[in-house]
Design a protein that fits this description.
Strand content: 25-35%
Number of strands: 17
CATH topology: Metallo-beta-lactamase, Chain A
Strand order of the largest sheet: 6-5-4-3-2-1-16-17
Number of domains: 1
Shape: globular
Structural class: alpha/beta
CATH superfamily: Ribonuclease Z/Hydroxyacylglutathione hydrolase-like
CATH architecture: 4-Layer Sandwich
Radius of gyration: 20 Å
Number of helices: 10
Order of helices and strands: HEEEHEHHEHEEEHEEEEHEHEHEHEE
CATH class: Alpha Beta
Distance between the termini: 43 Å
Length: 298
């Protein structure tokens, strides 16, 4: 046998051993919540065994780097994608995600955007016939042992503020209405539960809308808070912290001209003794939970 063949066989054996180790050494009962470092934007990957949920995709292609870092190369399926609202720093990266992965379902509001790239995303979703879920109707979603409850937007809010481009009662989800209100106000807010662990994922929701959600009593104690709107001054409130009492607050943020995260938001969190982690300082933020306790992944 020539040296070349020895090296080739040795390399193949090493690859096979690495794949075996990756499969059989993965913890079976731990869920990961990964705030991907996508710069000034949002992308959160939730992973349990071979099940993935992706919430937002950032502005560009960085989300693909995050997915390739945490998903095994043979897994090309994402069970659920959630687009909180149609702004570029949340949906831009989802165009390539839709092109490259098989997606079971896509949770998205009917709020439309005139942005060219959003129209591209809509066409990709329609061409692949991906199942679309409406947050005003599909408010409780179970994927294996992962449970999502949609807290916002409410059907009443949408009906009060939409400008119809199609009948609001249409079975179509994408692009059914526009609105004069801030797109952030339509952000899909979800509570993710795995066992006794809860994460509140808030999109870019603002204080006025958050006050309305708090009034419903739907927000309770959580372990993990995705700080609204990249730590904007017009995001987090003292009332939200008092209702949710999180142990860790994650801020998805990059270089920006708006001063995110705002010093008042940082002070609010520090005054409550909440652990703060920022993607612009530490990169991807990964926490793991067995459904009872949680810990940071080094």
């Amino acid at each position: 046998m020539t040296n070349r063949w020895r090296y080739t066989l040795g390399f193949l054996a090493l690859v096979a051993a690495s794949l075996w180790f990756a499969v059989f050494s993965r913890p079976k009962d731990n869920l990961s919540v990964i705030a991907c470092d996508v710069g000034q934007g949002d992308a959160i990957l939730i992973q349990f065994q071979d099940t993935q949920i992706l919430i937002d995709g950032g502005r560009g292609r960085k989300v693909l780097d995050c997915l390739s870092s945490y998903m095994p190369p043979w897994d090309r399926k994402i069970e659920l994608v959630v687009l909180t609202h149609p702004q570029l720093d949340h949906f831009g990266g989802l165009v390539e995600v839709v092109r490259r992965f098989d997606i079971d379902a896509f949770l998205v509001s009917g709020l439309d955007s005139e942005g060219e790239q959003y129209q591209v995303l809509k066409r990709e979703l329609e061409q692949k016939s991906i199942k679309l879920l409406d947050p005003t109707k599909d408010t409780k979603i179970s994927i294996g042992t992962i449970y999502l409850e949609v807290l916002w937007p409410s059907k009443e809010f949408v009906e009060n503020y939409y400008l119809a481009t199609e009948s609001i009662s249409s079975e179509k989800v994408l692009g059914t209405f526009t609105s004069k209100k801030d797109p952030n106000d339509f952000s899909i807010v979800v509570n993710l539960s795995y066992g006794e662990f809860d994460a509140l994922l808030t999109g870019d929701i603002g204080p006025d809308i958050m006050d309305g959600i708090l009034a419903t009593g739907l927000i309770g104690d959580v372990e993990y808070l995705k700080v609204p709107h990249h730590g904007s001054k017009n995001g987090l409130t003292k009332e939200l912290l008092e209702a949710s009492t999180p142990e860790i607050a994650v801020i998805s943020v990059g270089k920006n001209p708006w001063g995110h995260p705002h010093k008042e938001v940082i002070k609010l969190l520090r005054d409550k003794g909440i652990k703060i982690l920022r993607t612009d300082e530490v990169g991807d933020v990964e926490i793991k939970t067995d459904g009872k306790s949680w810990w940071l992944k080094d």
